[in-house]
Fold this sequence. Notes:
By secondary structure, the protein is an alpha+beta fold. It has helices at residues 14-20, 24-36, 56-68, 77-88, 98-110, 126-134, 139-143, 165-177, 194-204; strands at residues 40-45, 48-53, 90-92, 95-97, 114-116, 122-124, 151-154, 161-164, 181-183, 190-192.
Amino acid sequence: IFVVLGGRLVTPPLSSGCLAGVSAPTASAHLGRLLDGGFVTVVKQGRHRYYRLRSDEVAQVIEAMSRISPPVRVRSLRQSRDARRLHEARTCYDHLAGAAGVALFAALLDGGLIEPDGEEAFEVTEKGEERLGALGLDVAALRRARRRFAWQCLDWTERRPHLNGALGSALTGRMIELGWFERGTTRRALVVTEAGMTGLADSFGCVLT
């Protein structure tokens, strides 16, 4: 299920099996169970059937399960490297997570760009609207989106919150468009670029170490 947690469409059995390290029949069986359980939906494009998580709420449930599950034993240098990259920056469904996601959320809050708006929910301040608007985000349109606007999601590796919801998704997508983050070789992993280090610091006061 962590293959589809990256927010990308996955088609069985070959692609998902290769990504998850299991056989094609096993991948198909697992995806079938996830579909029956309401965790994923199917998108048909031509002759292919693609799977993705049903919603960001489902993604949060899966991340919560990860926090109480036993840690995966690292048996190789590659596994150690991949685990480190996922801790540094990754996608949680369609928004930024890992150390970078936690640092960005803290910077937005500490910088007065967002503020609490009820239990686990947040609103963008006037200052935040100006800053996000300068990056090309239409905050008003995001408020009208069908999904929740902005709320915190407890990060399973950092044990601190990162930004979820329509705002978190749009901001993550925009940062990738700007070249601040690039897709890593490990599924779900993101790599912050030099432009990203500068942009995060200049726009949000977020300094990644």
